[in-house]
Amino acid sequence: MTTEELQTLVLTTLDSNDSIDDTKELKGSDGKEVDQLALLGALKSLADKEMVKYNTIENEIWVLTEEGNEIVDKGSHEAIVFEAIPASEEGISISELQKLLGDSGKIGQGRAFKNKWINKKGGNLIRIVDSIIDQPRIDLDIIRSTGKHPDPKVPTELKKRKLCDKHKIISYSVTKGPQFSLTIKKQARDITFEMLQSGEWKKANFKNYNFDALGIPPSGGHLHPLMKVREELRQIFFEMGFEEMPTNRFVESSFWNFDALFQPQQHPARDAHDTFFLKDPAVGTQFPTEYLERVKKVHSVGGYGSNGYGYDWKIEEAQKLLLRTHTTAVSSFMLYNLAQKEFKPVKYFSIDRVFRNETVDATHLAEFNQVEGVIADKGLALGDLIGFMETFFEKMGIKKLRFKPAYNPYTEPSMEIFSYHEGLGKWVEIGNSGMFRPEMLEPMGLDPEVRVIAWGLGLERPTMIKYGIENIRELLGHKVNLTMIENNPICAFDLI
Ligand code: PHE
Fold first, then answer.
1. SS3 state at 108
2. Which of 63, 135, 254, 480 is most buried, most CB within 10 Å of its CB?
3. Whose C-alpha lies nearest to ligand 1, atom 2?
4. What's the pLDDT tens digit per position in 267-283?
5. Ligand 1 atom at minimal distance to the Cα of residue 414
6. What CA–CA distances, in Å, run from 192 to 6, 188, 207, 211?
């Protein structure tokens, strides 16, 4: 039945009877009970117009299970066993009965014994009564046709045998509302210009406001998962007393990106295969002159207790502009600035983009985000770096760390950081760290007592793990699904 048909049925019934005690009694034109869920829709819209009022009635009825239905159709297992045993004196052998009835024979035998319907004689089963009354079948039949049983204990017992079950059914009682009428007037939603002009608004019947309706979800900007994880990390840094470094220079000179970091000019990373160099403008020329001289010296002839690399350092190489390959370029610039003032211990961090001329695959792009931390203070040692890493990663929810000796031109000692990934069941590399070399720090003018510990990690890998993204192209670029961006929750590290 359509909603309109149901509404007409309700209204005409009310017109002749004044009220409907239980909509279960309503019959459609086909003579069948009406569907209560469809009826609810019809009642709601009539109630909105105040044409009717309704209340919900909750009824419990008993419904047979498949096995219960089978018993009504064929008899209980015990009755079937009784029927299968011939009335003769010798009865039937157990194996014969088994063949006849299969599993249901086994179940039925026990009950037939208990009911004192059958007994054993020799190896055979015999009847010990002339006739039986199959009570479960009678009870189940009553339940099947009425939904209940005069003795409420009966269905509860039968439920234990999984023969019937309790179901809740909902129906309604309905009475006339103040606007009761047999015809449904169309209701106006909004007042319109035409209604105002014609004066129709005075007579119009307006739809009630539904203050329970959910609003339309507001649209607005959404943070990219990377930005959510970045924000979480920023909070960890701030909580630990770090200052954020300005990372607004994507274009850097080779000087700050490599030379200041004691990275030799013939180092393979400085090759165009690994680094994006700029064509126009191709060079930068503004460097602190004295510092530049000291950098040149430490590379070519050494100093500060170092032999240097012993090669012919060229300014042209340092002037080449590039897209920064690591945020350590920012750290070197910041440490140089720190060295120009009276020393005070600092903790710096940055999270921003870096670029490498790499082959793009499922987990690598030619650009990615680096998280970088730097701590400068007198008397820091490798133990401080390890201890600090443990606290920092613990705040990210990463507990098991391992350190592996590594090499960076600008740190000594250097350590790769591994963490145990429970999901992958193995140790994965999560970052790189070390203590900046005197060849990097002393030419800047820093007190030789000052030690700087530093580390870097990628932002993409933890984000992909956190949000269950397998291909980096689903995280960045034109293939990104915007719904993913809108629906992903904020990032919260599983804190311990
Ligand atoms: N710059 C390093 C990298 O790009 C990370 C690093 C930072 C290592 C600071 C040591 C100290 O992988």
1. helix
2. 254
3. 456
4. 988 988 899 999 999 99
5. 10
6. 31, 9, 14, 21
> Is residue 451, in this structure, part of any structural domain at all?
yes
| Tokens, residue 373 | 């931390």
353 band by pLDDT with thresholds 50, 70 and 90: very high
Same domain, 121 and 249: no
Q: Provide mean pLDDT across the span 177-191.
A: 87
Residue 494's pLDDT band (cuts 50, 70, 90): low
Are residues 236 and 357 both part of a single domain? Answer: yes
Nearest CA to ligand 1 atom 10: 433
The reported pLDDT for the residue numbered 495 is 44
pLDDT tens-digit series, residues 123-152: 899 999 999 999 999 999 999 999 999 999
The DSSP code for 414 is: E
Which atom of ligand 1 is nearest to 326's Cα?
4
Beta strand ranges found along 122-236 (DSSP E): 124-127, 164-176
Q: Do residues 126 and 251 both lie within one domain?
A: no
Domain boundary among 88, 117, 133: 133
| Assigned domain for 255 exists | yes
Task: For residue 291, report the distance from its CA to the centre of ligand 1, in Å.
Answer: 22
Q: How many domains does the chain have?
A: 2
- Domain assignment present for residue 301? The answer is yes
Same domain, 334 and 231: yes
- Ligand 1 contact, 455 CB (< 6 A): yes
Global pTM reads 0.60
Q: Residue 264 belongs to what domain range?
A: 227-487
Q: Whose CA is nearest to atom 5 of ligand 1?
A: 456
115 and 242, same domain (yes or no)? no
Collapse the DSSP code of 418 into the 3-class scheme (helix H, G, I; strand E, B; otherwise coil) and give the result.
strand
Confidence class for position 496, pLDDT limits 50, 70, 90: very low
**Is the beta carbon of 411 within 6 A of some atom in ligand 1?**
yes
The DSSP bridge partners found for residue 277 are 322
Name the residue of 270, 407, 408 to mutate for ligand 1: max ligand atoms within 8 A of Cβ: 408
Q: Mean pLDDT over residues 303-324, rounded?
A: 96
Neighbouring residues of 286: CB distance < 8 A, sequence distance ≥ 6: none
Residue 366: give its domain's CATH number.
3.30.930.10
From the CB of 408, is ligand 1 less than 6 Å away? yes
Whichever domain contains 111, its CATH number is 1.10.10.10
Q: Compute the CA torsion angle 313, 316, 318, 322 (nearest 10 deg).
A: -150
Ligand 1 in contact with 456 (CB < 6 A)? yes
